[in-house]
Amino acid sequence: MMVWINDSEFTHASICVGRRNRYGEIDSLLRIVDYERDINNNDSYTWSYRKNTPWEVKEGGRTNPEDPATLYRPETLEKFRQSGNDYLFVKWKPNVADPERPQLKDPYAKPYGYIPPLYEVIDCPDVDKIDELQKRLMKGWSYSGNPTKQILVLYSSHDDNLDAVLMERNDFDLSNGWIRLKSSASISAEKYVLNRFDVKYLPLTAKDSEGTRAIYIKPFLPQPRGKVMVQSPSRYATQYIQWYISTLNFNYSETEQQHIVALLEKAFQAPERLDEFNTAIPQKGIAEIRTTIKRLANENKNQIRLLMKDTLYNDPHFKRECMDECRQEALRDIDEERSTKQRQIDHYFNKQKAANDNLLEQQRRTISELEEKIHNRAASHDRLEKMIAPLQERVDELNRQLQSAQSDLEQVQQQKKLELDQLQQQGEEELANLERQKEEALSRFDKDVALKLGLKSVIETITTMRDSTQSTKSNSLLARAVAYPSWPVRQGNKPFINTLADNLREYGIVSVSDSTSSILDLADAIARSKSATNLLALDSTFAVPIANAITYATYGTPAKHVSISADWNDASVLEQLLSNEDNDVLVMDNVFDTVNEGLLFSLSRLESDVTIILPVGSYGNLRLISSEIWNHVFYLPTEQYIKMPAVGGRMSHTSAYQPFIEVKQQDIISEMTNRLRPSVTNKMPISSLVLPSSIAARFNPIDSGEKWVSAHIALQTYAAFGMEIAQSKLANDRELRAADKLLKRIGDSHHA
Questions:
Q1: Residue 227: how many CA atoms within 13 Å on its side-chain side?
Q2: pLDDT > 90: what percent of the chain?
Q3: CB–CB of 14/102 below 8 Å?
């Protein structure tokens, strides 16, 4: 089944053929071949068609979602009908809303670029040899449709091998339900030997049965087996005679037959001109053609008449010339014709003379212009010589001054060496100063970038709010929450913190420290942080496991998530989303990674009981986030933990009530003024410390909360004052490893 969400799980391209109904009209596209390109840029085809089962035939068709007839947009099918082609190369994209019904990337709205080759296989009937193929190609046979650009024409088979020639679609006349080789087509073609199992016949009717048309289901052809002639020697000889006549400008008279014979004999006397005419045929074929020309040149008058008839039939221009010649001979006598020819010659001569006179006059004008340019160049040369003379004197004077300067340089060389040593020391000091200035400039650049992007976000938010009446439906769909996949659940009566820790372990979260209680510490920190705020920022690796660990421990059900676009910020839809009773813990993807500050500020202003988890995937983008955001969103550090692959265990649900840790205002103020305020820069507003103080005050002992809020405070300091000030506050306390690792991660992402 064509079911996938991750792009790495499915072949994303197919070749389709138009299926016709009983009236001969294309009413659907049928997927016949899947295309894939591996990491080494090797192309491969896979035959993807299957027949309807007896049950599907009984039911009148397929209801399976993989049926291609249900996977195409009407506008694509209409454009395909208008193109006149029978084959279409398409690319797919996953459908997040309905994974069983992938969507089509319209090739007409936005062309793909590269399209892999496809070869239709056409069986030439009632032939088994090359000479039989030549005759049948001239005669033609029944065929309906529009083949591929290049065609493999079958003419013989032995065991599992099929003999075929590769020809161009433009070499054939495809009209009135018939296919035949044009007289103007190539004389020869490449021969190939195909494997019978690489040729698949197409179900082109509504009956879902194999038809007479087929394709070669490989993106590449085998090595060619040489060239063979596809035009008959007589047709080739006729074309050669026509070409040879055109090169000689032969004049016909009433003794046409003798002239034709003489012309054929003369053509045969110069057989080397066959190579000038066309060399893309085998030597055996050239010998056959020369024999044919010799036979035509020496056979009786009936044969000559047949040749003339064939020439007149295949060359309308030559036919018109012959008819004009006959009319002139019937209506005019020799003298009148000679007089006419003389006048034509005189006219041509006068015309050529006038053209030559015009050309001569143009050449005279050109010569005059060149002479004038030469004169001007000579005058310029004289002026340059006059200008060079004083310059040369100046150069001589400068050379004398240079010699004097060199003498002076030798005298002060020792003194300059001392000065250079001093300058070098001075330069090193200036370089250090420039390095500090560079860092300051980079910091200002970051702030400027953040300001510009912030203004852009505000403008996009205003535009979105202005157009909200037209886009309410689309925004509603965009903000639809979806539950994560369910895990088996076991009921327990452990305390909430212990149950939460068990769920974190089932998701593969482990500590990189030696402490055996680290996971329990993380669970405790999550519970205390949730008591202070419902807006948590987490590393994207831990966002989903922590969200599900909370909801399974509390309700026995998975959490929900919603994907947010870069510029989405609809306050009414957001309020509806958060007021939904089914949404207890909600993961909002792409908010930080797309720097959607408008949505972040909107979340900070809403009062909701829903715990909102905001994943952070791109740490480099954190430098673009306003520092005021962190007054409302708490960054929960996970730098001391890693996530291992989950083995698929069971989630735990406890009947114990989730604790809400209360704290007095006086404790928050004491934590803010006595502990946190002295550890941050005095430029930090006191209001920025309310959230981390509220969380730190809920820990027991109270000083243990400092390591959990240190990363958050470091992030606030960096957003407001830059990396240098943020790192300087950590220099005196290396125990704050979470904050140190966070700043290092932001810095590495920035420089990358």
A1: 14
A2: 21
A3: no
How far is the C-alpha of 679 from the C-alpha of 729, rounded, in Å?
Answer: 7
The residues near 95 (Cβ < 8 Å, ≥ 6 apart) are 101, 102, 103
Residue 316's φ and ψ, nearest 5 degrees, are -60, -35
Asked if residue 585 and residue 482 are part of one domain, the reply reads yes
Co-location of 670 and 521 in the same domain: no
- Considering the domain architecture, whether residues 442 and 456 belong to the same structural domain is answered as yes
* Beta-sheet strand order (sheet of 13-20): 43-47, 26-37, 13-20, 87-93, 103-105
Domain boundary among 59, 74, 105: 105
Residue 312 pLDDT > 50: yes
pLDDT at 469 over 50: no
Q: What is the mean pLDDT of the chain?
A: 78
Assess if residue 212 is contained within a domain: yes
Model pTM above 0.70: no
For 83-116, the DSSP string reads HT-SEEEEEEE--SS-TTSPEEE-TTTS--S---
Q: Is residue 443 located within the same domain as residue 562? A: no
Q: Is residue 346 part of a domain?
A: no
197 and 252, same structural domain?
Answer: no
Q: Of all helices (H) and strands (E), which one includes residue 215? A: strand 214-216
Number of domains in the chain: 6
> Which CATH number fits the domain that encloses residue 580?
3.40.50
User: Do residues 503 and 549 touch, judged by C-beta distance below 8 A?
Assistant: yes
For position 705, what pLDDT does the model report?
Answer: 80
Q: Is residue 378 one of the residues assigned to a domain?
A: no
Residue 364 lies in a domain: no
Say which amino acid occupies 631.
N
Whether 289 and 434 map to the same domain: the answer is: no
Q: Could you say which of 76, 105, 134 is where a domain stops? A: 105
Scan for tokens 């890693």, then name that residue.
642
Q: What are phi and psi of 592, to 5 degrees?
A: -70, -40
Q: Max CA-CA distance within the chain?
A: 131
Cα–Cα distance list, 702 to 676, 689, 697 (Å): 12, 16, 6
Residue 8 DSSP symbol: G
Contact predicate 122/153, CB 8 Å: yes
> By residue range, what is the domain housing residue 243?
233-331
How far apart are alpha carbons 251 and 321 in whole angstroms?
Answer: 10
CA distance 680 to 693: 12
- Single out the residue of 710, 699, 720, 717 nearest to residue 741, CA to CA: 710
What are the Cα distances from residue 586, in Å, to 482, 546, 579, 618? 9, 11, 12, 20
Indicate if 250 and 137 belong to the same structural domain.
no
Residue of 746 and 155 predicted with greater confidence: 155
d(CA 567, CA 462): 10
Strands 188-195 and 178-181 turn out to be unpaired
Three-state SS at 600? helix
How far apart CA 685 and CA 628 sit, in angstroms, is: 10
705: Cα separation from own chain's centroid:
49
Neighbours of 365 (CB within 10 A): 10
Nearest CA to 274 among 258, 263, 285? 285
* Same domain, residue pair 506 and 591: yes
Sheet harboring 141-142: ordered strands across?
141-142, 178-181, 172-175
Residue 31's closest CA among 12, 5, 44? 12
Cβ-Cβ contacts under 8 Å for 104 (sequence gap 6 or more): 71, 72, 73, 76, 90, 91, 92, 93
- Please give the pLDDT value at position 354: 87
How sure is the predictor about 22, in pLDDT bands with cuts at 50, 70 and 90? Answer: confident
Q: Which amino acid is at 707?
A: K
Contact 221, 116 (CB under 8 A): no
Cis peptide before 224 (omega within 30 of 0): no
